[in-house]
Amino acid sequence: MTQPISRNCFAVLVDNEPGVLARVVGMFSGRGYNIESLTVDEVDAAQKLSRITIVSSGTQKILDQIAAQLGRLVPVRKVVNLTEQGRSVESGTALLKISGTAEVRLQAADIAKQAGARMVDATGNTAIYELTAAPVSIDKLIAALRPFGLSEIARSGSLAMGCGDAVLEAPPVAVAIKSA
Questions:
Q1: Coil, helix or strand for 3?
Q2: Alpha-carbon torsion (131, 135, 140, 146), positive or negative
Q3: Residues of the chain with CATH 3.30.70.260
Q4: CATH topology of domain 6-84
Q5: How confident is the model at residue 178 (pLDDT cuts 50, 70, 90)?
């Protein structure tokens, strides 16, 4: 009996230093795990911490291995599987360029507006729409706009945060004390 494949979102707090992202990505590629989405940015300048949000799919065994192996990397301070933790909010941003006649762009504008996207540029025969929403909502808008001259797509990776009182915080760093 094969185990079901599920999509999970991990939040990873890491020391903000050169090479950390390469180590994290290297762990995935070295074990043959796929990264479906990845975002990273500094979240605490004083503590020099960055937050990486990674979406990956696999069996429960593989997802458990991902969390455990991420946690063993030296620059990683904390790993949380947000999908397993409970309710979370996941969001991404997409920029979608429509190219075509004024009539086609007008039809696309109606579809984009209904989806909650906003126009951020209109130049010549193109219009660019921005949508920040759950990945599935972005996928739906992309599918709806394809027949209307969707010529270019730029998407951020997913950002996610657990709902409720739980807060993702890094444990304090142990400081080695040299004896005299």
A1: coil
A2: positive
A3: 6-84
A4: Alpha-Beta Plaits (3.30.70)
A5: low
